[in-house]
Amino acid sequence: MSATASGGGGEGGGEGGGADDVRSTTTNSIDAVPSSAKANGCSETGSVWNSDPDPCCAGSLVTPLPNSLNQQQVIQSVHHPSSQSLIQRQPNGQHLSDQSSSSVPSLGRPPTTTSDSKVIEALQTEVDRLKKELLASQEVIGKMQEREKQLRNRLSEQAQRQLQKGPSKFEDLSLGEGRPTQLIKRYGNIYTESRLDAMDALDDVPNMVDCGDLKNKLLLSVIVLAFRTAEQTLRETKSKVRELLHIPRVMESGNSSLCHAAKELEESVAFYLRKTVNRHDISKTYKEVCERVWTTLFDYPLLKECQGLLRYINDCVRTAWALTVQNPPFVIDYESSVFNPDMHARFHTSDPGSPEIRSVLWPVLLESEGGPCVSKGIVLT
After folding, report:
1. Cα(339)–Cα(381) distance, rounded to whole angstroms?
2. What pLDDT, in 10s, does the model give residues 72-106?
3. Where are the alpha helices (DSSP H) in 59-211?
4. 129/3: higher pLDDT
5. Secondary structure element (H or E) that encloses residue 333, with its range
6. Phi and psi for 335 in degrees, rounded to 5?
7. Distance, CA of 284 to CA of 290 (rounded, Å)
8. In the 8-state DSSP scheme, what is residue 191?
9. Residue 58: pLDDT above 90?
10. DSSP per-residue letters across 345-379
């Protein structure tokens, strides 16, 4: 019995000794806690720390520790009070810090909610709709630009036809140097330049040095013959076209379509002649003018070798042809006997008080028969 009691006492002693060891370990662990935690109002009653009502320690209490914990576990479970995040040991071994961290959203990626997704989807739909509208608008603009181009071409063609058909206040710029304004300027330059060169060249012809009146009449006859021959050549050209295509001179009144076609043909031929005034072969007209001059002045055979006169004849024929094929055709007037300040200009040796024209040095250029004067004639009164 004494042995049993002794053994039981031994067990009791052993258990008592084990409890003392635990209490000693716990006491040592508490003593190991920094004094700053105690300064915040935590005491050592009933648990590792008991919190006073001070809010700085609220929610950071450690529950009573099981007896099975050793000193190392307690020390690992305690954090510095300044972090305000003392880890509480739960029966299942889960830390409070794990639960709190799982509920805190990530700072780098804000959470995407259902409402945000709907907004993004709506915006994307709106972007797609605007893209479709933009493409449709660009297509409409392209069609409108193409339509505008077609209308401009049609308007240009119609204006071109109007210029070809009859007189107009506008000029066809496509004619270039063959435009009426340029031809009128060329006509005036013949008197101020080519005629003076021809006069100087005629002074070198024997027996014509002192024949001033003869030289003036010769040069006037050249420009008159040039216009007459150009008009005759134009009539013959149109007549040959009619004969070649068997177009009667007088169309039947009942056949309006043929009349319209014949009129369009003549207009086309006239327009072609205006476009080619600088390339037209005037050799035939030039020869005719020269032959008439040589025939009239047969007493001066050396005129055929006067280069200044030949250049003057060529300039007159070329300009006369270009002015004759215009629509309406330009004509010259040299038969006036009374001075008209709207049509004539006096030569420097004229009598300014005399209205009577003694001789014509350069003919008046008119826009069509009886039309306005576009270049004044030079007369001697």
Report:
1. 8
2. 454 444 444 444 444 444 444 444 444 444 444 44
3. 71-77, 96-103, 114-165, 180-189, 195-202
4. 129
5. strand 330-333
6. -110, 5
7. 10
8. I
9. no
10. EE-TTS-TT--B--EEEE-EEEESTT--EEE-EEE
Q: Which structure tokens are listed for 290? A: 């020269």
Instruction: Using alpha carbons, list the distances in angstroms from residue 173 to 60, 135, 176, 325, 374.
Output: 100, 40, 6, 16, 19
295 torsion bin: left (phi>0), alpha (psi -120 to 50), beta (else): alpha
Two structure tokens written together for 289: 């003018």
CA angle 292, 293, 294 (to 5 degrees): 95
Residue showing tokens 């040991």: 89
What predicted TM-score, i.e. pTM, was given to this entire model? 0.57
- Measured between its terminal Cα atoms, the distance across the chain in Å is 183
Per 3-state DSSP, the chain is made up of helix, strand and coil in percentages (nearest 5) of 60, 10, 35
Contact status, residue 63 vs residue 89, Cβ threshold 8 Å: yes
Q: In what order do the strands lie in the sheet with 359-362?
A: 344-346, 377-380, 359-362
Tell me which long-range contacts 301-304 makes (C-beta under 8 A, separation of at least 24).
Answer: 302/205, 302/206, 303/205
Alpha carbon 164 to chain centroid, angstroms: 32
CA distance 132 to 138: 10
Amino acid at 101: S
Q: What would the two tokens of residue 118 be?
A: 């709907």
